[in-house]
Amino acid sequence: MTNLFEPHRVGDLSLPNRVVMAPMSRVRGTADGLATERMATYFAQRADAGLIISDGIQPNLVGTSNPGAAGLRTEEEAVSWKPVTDAVHVNGGRIFAQLMHGGRVGHELVTGVQPVGPSAVAINGSIFTPDGMKPAPVPRALATGEVPEQAGSYAEAATRAIGAGFDGVELHGANGYLIGQFLSSNANLRTDRYGGSIAGRIRFAVEAVEATVDAIGAGRTGIRLSPGAGLWDVTEEDVPQLYDALLAELNRLDLAYVHLEATADETTMLALRRRWDGAFMVNPSTWLVRGESPYGPVPTNRESADHWLGLGADLVSFGRAYIANPDLVERLRLGQPLAEADPATFFGGDDKGLIDYPPYRKP
């Protein structure tokens, strides 16, 4: 069976192991969207991962979701990421930028503009704002002629990301953000070429990826997906057929990888593995097993990682396990216990719960 600590080739990169640090929105940027010194320290501490995927980064103003998140909307913001990527590289690591267009997951209090989406359908829920949680606004439905501009925003941000020293980018097509909204059957009520049929609903995702590949190359481009996850009030019909069609279209582009959250049943996941010819990354921290936890799934561990490697995954991403364990690769390799992170420090704040977790020490 594939070993978690074997090297693997991903696009233009040779990874020393198959442990990936999953994207997490720690929200430690400045109020005006710049990356910070503490972020450089945080990612550099975790540079022994085969690959780091950054927090979700907004590609443009209207796509901004979280207040206090660093962006790639402007050259100034891109320059602020250079100390982060330099710190990771100096420590021997590799880092992709996750490009996250929020679509309807946004608020005028964050951006000063009305959010956009496939259709004028609001989330049944609340949105993070500088003034606390607020009811989700009704987004403005994008006109057909405006959709390519939003697809192109990923490519523009990707170009800035490469200029800032990132090794590549991951388009955030998971968890109910803009790409996921176009894939959905309740947020996307369109009757033009971007809606209706499966071919229509996958079109935006394909065009966004194609634009990014044209801008920076296929070997530097990946995508994250969460089949049937249901997050941010997104419903998807015909999940196996929808994602089979999407991966069939993306497969011809020779991407660095596809990154799937294990949000569908194993039968569906294995069918998607067979559909995909390239590097297949899985985050086993499934949202199908919520239990009573207010923070969602059980974190990925060595057992679940080995399980998915045995099922054909090439890479396994770890999210919350990386928060309190900067030396996660070594802990997994040696079978050392994993520290527990403090949920109160997950989002926003200062150094506490970000860069103050120590490496393992024997009792």
TrEMBL record:
Transmembrane segments: none annotated. GO terms for molecular function: FMN binding; oxidoreductase activity. Residues 3-337 form the NADH:flavin oxidoreductase/NADH oxidase N-terminal domain. This is Alkene reductase.
